[in-house]
Amino acid sequence: MSLEAQKAAARKAGFARRKAAFDGQAPGAAGKLSELLAGHRGVPLAGYMPIRTEIDPVPAMEEAAAHGPVAVPVIEAAGQPLSFARWEPGAPMIDGPFGARIPAKLDWITPEILIVPLVAFSRAGGRLGYGGGFYDRTLEGLRARGPVLALGFAFSAQEDAGLPLEPTDQPLDAIVTEAEILTPPR
């Protein structure tokens, strides 16, 4: 089976596990994320506006916004890295590409911490996304300029020990689930 076929199968299974976890989630899923971010107050942060069955980081983003700049990703073109527009709780939002909400006013910032959505993850820091490569390109570019902390945020049910990866897949520095904070070995 080709790597692309393996990734497609892993995505299908990951989406199914994520939907089941989303449907059965208890309130407060962002608690562990808030706990981790509390140690990084004031550092420019990028979260995301959840789509479909993604775990919701917005409560943790709201807490972080009281201490420093928070942004959300904006897809400007296929095959390009993401840009990040400043977000504040209650700010006017519009529909962006792929159904994610983005700020109506685009005030660009460069984050040093990224909360990264995903379809599946491994405890070793592997991440399987939607297949567009946006976060891989973005993390590669940001890491070339300096330290960046990539935090995968997912339901624990999204773990996949046999995740198919390739050299361009950027590793996560930590994975935060509703149940625990995982720090992969480096």
From TrEMBL:
It comes from Litorisediminicola beolgyonensis. Belongs to the 5-formyltetrahydrofolate cyclo-ligase family. Keywords: ATP-binding, Ligase, Magnesium, Metal-binding, Nucleotide-binding. The keyword ATP-binding applies. Its EC number is 6.3.3.2. The keyword Metal-binding applies. It is an enzyme of class 6 (ligase). Coiled coil: none annotated. GO terms for molecular function: 5-formyltetrahydrofolate cyclo-ligase activity. Its cofactor is Mg(2+). It comes from the Bacteria. This is 5-formyltetrahydrofolate cyclo-ligase. It catalyses: (6S)-5-formyl-5,6,7,8-tetrahydrofolate + ATP = (6R)-5,10-methenyltetrahydrofolate + ADP + phosphate.
